[in-house]
Design brief:
Elements: H1 18-45, H2 56-63, H3 66-94, H4 98-125, H5 139-145
Helix pairs in contact: 1-3, 3-4
Amino acid sequence: MSATTTVAPARRSRGFNLEKWGWIFMRASGVLLIVLIFGHLFVNLMVGEGIHALNFAFVAGKFASPFWQWWDVLMLWLALIHGTNGMRTIVNDYVNNDKVRTVLNWALGLSAALLIVLGTLVVFTFDPCAGVFEDGAMWETCQALGK
């Protein structure tokens, strides 16, 4: 006589599933990051004079354009959130202590939020003429801009 066992069907919880949306975000942001990063590298290293044109004036010129500001901010946001979500997954997989896991996840979230805020402020408030003195290389350019 053989014993038969019945397996109860898996329960599906209703509501927001963080792991599912984290998985979807990682795939979508990864594809978008590839486009953003390679576009960034192409424009910075291949267009115009290439790598020889990279200097402070090049960056100032890029950050003067709202298109490039948003391109770089989107790249920053996606990279930080993508990396933080990956680290969160590693912490959840390998840290067994609930309190340590909670502290590490909070530290990841807070550090990512701080870097996102600071990076966004740098991009949108970048002023190439801040701190330029009369004997500086940018003095004439800033005078021509009226700053």
